[in-house]
Amino acid sequence: MxxxxxxxxxxxxxxxxxxxxxxxxxxxxxxxxxxxxxxRRAAEELFDIEGDILKVRTMRVRGKPKGKMLRYQRGRxxxxxxxxxxxxxxxxxxxxxxxx
Length: 100
What we know:
alpha+beta; Alpha-Beta Plaits; two-stranded antiparallel sheet; 4 helices; 6 strands
């Protein structure tokens, strides 16, 4: 099993993920090879939310093209994977509470 810090790479702080927090949903950038059970275990270990996770949803995000003109594309940004973790009512991740 991978280390928890290798599974969950960073929190995803966007306008949409901030709105999702009102429904007890938290978004993270995760390792592209991570599975849902690995993400669940890593979140429980890192944020001390044992038994509070209801579901883990994942999606692969395709990297955007780089370069000024799409016709003369110079390359792509790398593909990445996003995970949205839903917690039970009343549970929170304390690290997110300091972020507005």
